Amino acid sequence: MKNLLEVEDLRVEYRGRPIVGGVSFSLGKGESLGLAGESGCGKTTTALSLMKMLPDGLKQSGGITLRPEGLEEAINIGKRTEAGMQVVRWRHVSLVFQGAMNSLDPVKHIDSQIAEVIRLHEKGVSSGEVSDRIADLLTTVGLTPALGKRYPHQLSGGQRQRVMIALALACRPSLVVADEPTTALDVVNQAQVLELLERLREELGLSLILISHDLGVLAETCDRIAVMYAGRIVETGTVEAVFSNPQHPYTKRLLDSLPVIGGERGLAPPIPGAPPDPGNPPKGCSFHPRCPYSTDRCLIEPEAREIAAGHVAACHFSPWASWPELESSGLAVES
Amino acid sequence: MDVKDLAVTFRSRRKTSRALDGVSLDWKRGEVLGVVGESGCGKSTLARAMLGLQEVSGGEVLLAGNPAGGRSEMRDLRRRVQMIFQDPYQTLNPRQKVGAIVAEPLIVQAVDKSVRQERILKALTDVGLDPETYLDRYPHQLSGGQRQRVAIAAALVLEPDGLICDEPVSMLDASVRSQILTVLMELKERRNLALIFITHDLSLAWSLCDRIAVMYLGRVVETGTAVDVIEKPKHPYTTALVAAVPVPAIGAGSSRALLKGELPDPSELPPGCRFHPRCPKRFAGCDEIDPVLAAVGPHGQKAACLLYDGADPAGRSAGGPGTAPDADPSSRLAPPAGLTGE
Hints:
Distance between the termini of chain B: 41 Å
Structural class of chain A: alpha/beta
Strand order of the largest sheet of chain B: 6-7-8-3-9-10-12-11
Largest sheet of chain A: 8 strands, mixed
Helix content of chain B: 25-40%
Shape of chain B: globular
Mean pLDDT of chain A: 88
CATH topology of the largest domain in chain A: Rossmann fold
CATH superfamily of the largest domain in chain A: P-loop containing nucleotide triphosphate hydrolases
Oligomer: heterodimer
Number of helices of chain B: 10
Radius of gyration of chain A: 21 Å
Order of helices and strands of chain B: EEEHEEHEHHHHEHEHEEHHEE
CATH topology of the largest domain in chain B: Rossmann fold
Strand order of the largest sheet of chain A: 6-7-8-3-9-10-12-11
CATH class of the largest domain in chain B: Alpha Beta
Structural class of chain B: alpha/beta
Radius of gyration of chain B: 22 Å
Mean pLDDT of chain B: 81
Number of helices of chain A: 10
Number of strands of chain A: 12
Number of domains of chain A: 2
Strand content of chain A: 15-25%
Low-confidence stretches of chain B: 311-342
CATH architecture of the largest domain in chain B: 3-Layer(aba) Sandwich
Order of helices and strands of chain A: EEEHEEHEHHHHEHEHEEHHEE
Largest interface: A-B, 58 and 56 residues
Shape of chain A: globular
Number of domains of chain B: 2
CATH architecture of the largest domain in chain A: 3-Layer(aba) Sandwich
């Protein structure tokens, strides 16, 4: 079976500077992929380029192929024009944005916002059918249809995020990209929204790309995970493989820095410095200035290599059989 | 520092919201106290009320046993207890240099000029910023982590006894987050500070705090050592909060009891226990009796829940405190109250 989505060597440039520097991944039907990384690493840019929704000035290149079920020909998103993309967006791929409050129209009822999406993408739907579908959608995301008569400000943050998900599902797409869907929510609402996404994936056979800086969130909802750093994927593999046996020092340090209930208390030694500007990454391996294990070899850019089946890391020294013990030297003064 | 029965009421044209409703805490030097709960539970209001940034409608704040009511006491309190806010992008004046930002508290509190420079340099060094490089920079020239360090330095120059940190790292990236936490923990050790950590992230509270107070709708519903409260939660709300934490491990979170519904409107508090409409373990009486904090375990663990109330009329003590109420005949379950919003 062919994959639903193939992304090959996706690059995004801003004034000749690379923001995303050659990202490739694929996604099967019903599969969920997590994109992890810190702010500025290119997660959101990658998500937007999948829908060709990048802001002016950003140029993308590379192949993006989508093969939705029931469609004879694959959709070559990479080559589509703006007009061609309007047929694809929302109908085949939809996006759940981070800030639900900023993405909903404050002066329109929830119902009419969903109706707008349906009418725009499917011509000739009767108004009876539209209202049936709205009620269905709201029920699917765990809201009572009566809430459709409300305005966004009358809903809680969790409810608004559910409305965003209902909007994304309105035209029954095969792929949903969720960009930090739970970041603005507190733990309880976050758990509810994650559970909802998981359920929708099972019930509707959706494929999901979940973008989050929170590795815990990704561990719970994804089959596979791709860790991004400075515009590249530095490690990818199944959630099991990456979490139990990380093969890139960045992944390793990130996982170590997460507090885990029931695990060791206290703090792991922090990663020094800050993530680099993706437009101006350090020479060689972009993580080497912050990497405790770096050597001269790291000034040469490492190739992404397959370490085990489906587990790829871009580090000269992987596979790591064991990680050298780090000295907890406290905090270095920055100058 | 002690907080006794603190209450804060917000009034709007039609409604009265009790944002804080009788919260008591004690807080010692060298200790990290975590205040956890959902957004809207009153965590930040508590912090603001403790510093007199929020008018209180009842209760009092005691500093070393003395009530901090009058102007001069409040001034003293604000020197000795400092606060760090969530968003380092909004708390720093964009038109001031780092040196001026850090110096400002010294001017406000009229600290002797001869020691000012020395204090500023010490505070910046303590948070891991080299004064020579950073004194003359503007906030926009700093990364998020560096800004938060400047905010911490500005809180430190007055050499406070306590720091209240309101979600100090929730805006920061994972790798920067642990740097800031390391700074705070080292400061606590070095200066023997008392720290309050306000967070909705229970895993963070678990790894850093000595004691925890769990808040729900303006009340503390459970308190105790961090290990006790999180590993052996007694109040059903704490149990649900712990269950909601995403676990960065495989196979976690597949079968867990999720809290349903939304936080009720604090202007229309449910009768009885305020958690009962969402509580998976509610039984008859929960909608009538408002439970108070009572001892439920060793090391001073306390919870406000009828499950552990020895005086419960139904003779539930048969199995001792902590017996699961699930064993009760279902007829005793209160009819499911309408969940707000959903």
